[in-house]
């Protein structure tokens, strides 16, 4: 990237004074502002119930701000609907806390699903899916059904599925929960490597020891407010 591109590239995620409540419930997020440049890596932390998953759902456009503005890839998202909304969502990959793998499909089919849904022919991506599964260390579990995978294997399958369509932004909600510290470090390094290749990463975690291993921005949610460290 040359200097001109670096200075003009729009923020991947920008929130200005965003507030959010579920229905008529209490305000979960208040006056949240955030400006994440392309190719950045941020941890998102905060106590249980602070709103980390909610913030991720907002960025994924699964729920909409009750106040303030959310911009993605330099564009306002307030009026997105239909095909345009689908196009925006396809620019993001997500690893859910509970994996959300489909139990009746193999590991390979789960990871290939986002490409099938987008209308690609299997012959065009088969090698790529296998290569990605090998990259996340699941080369020998390609034909396995999710109920037979360990927690760590399910997490890696969910990570591979989030990456297969080469998203510009990846959101991962506790992707290293439920695995031992050594595997957590390996999974973290998958995200670091991905970030080196150009993808922006937001990784929600409670794990301070994990955050200490990577030099990255830290976003901290506390009482509905978002703090930046540094
Ligand atoms: N669909 C919903 N309807 C109403 N309230 C909700 C809903 N989802 C979450 N909440 C509430 O919003 C608040 C924030 O929840 P959220 O899951 O975003 O927190 P979190 O920081 O991700 O928590 P954890 O670390 O435990 O996963 C909590 O008080 C939760 O009870």
Mean pLDDT comes to 92
Count helical runs.
Answer: 8
CATH fold title of the largest domain? Rossmann fold
Strand order within the widest sheet? 6-7-8-3-9-10
Query: Would you state the CATH class of the largest domain?
Result: Alpha Beta
Domains, number? 2
Family: Belongs to the ABC transporter superfamily.
Domain ABC transporter: 13-230
Pfam families: ABC_tran
GO molecular function: ATP binding; ATP hydrolysis activity; transmembrane transporter activity
Q: Could you give the topology of this structure?
A:
Elements: H1 3-8, E1 13-21, E2 27-36, E3 41-45, H2 52-59, E4 67-72, E5 75-76, H3 82-90, E6 92-95, H4 107-117, H5 122-135, H6 151-163, E7 169-173, H7 181-196, E8 200-204, H8 208-211, E9 217-222, E10 225-229
Parallel strand pairs: 3-8, 3-9, 6-7, 7-8
Antiparallel strand pairs: 1-2, 1-4, 4-5, 9-10
Helix pairs in contact: 4-5, 4-6
The protein binds adenosine-5'-triphosphate.
Task: Describe the model.
By secondary structure, the protein is an alpha/beta fold. It folds into 2 domains: 3-91 and 168-229, Rossmann fold (3-Layer(aba) Sandwich), CATH 3.40.50.300; 102-166, no CATH class. 35% of the residues lie in helices and 25% in strands. The protein contains 8 helices and 10 strands. It has helices at 3-8, 52-59, 82-90, 107-117, 122-135, 151-163, 181-196, 208-211; strands spanning 13-21, 27-36, 41-45, 67-72, 75-76, 92-95, 169-173, 200-204, 217-222, 225-229. The strands form 2 sheets. The protein has a 6-stranded mixed sheet with strand order 6-7-8-3-9-10, with helices on both faces. The chain has a 4-stranded antiparallel sheet with strand order 2-1-4-5, with helices on one face. Strand 4 (67-72) and strand 5 (75-76) form a beta hairpin. Helix 4 packs across helix 5 (122-135). It is globular and about 45 Å long. The two termini are 25 Å apart. The model has no long low-confidence stretch (mean pLDDT 92). Residues 22, 25, 28, 46, 48-54 line the site of adenosine-5'-triphosphate (ATP). One of its GO terms (cellular component) is plasma membrane. It comes from Enterovirga rhinocerotis. One of its GO terms (biological process) is cell division. Residues 13-230 form the ABC transporter domain. Belongs to the ABC transporter superfamily.
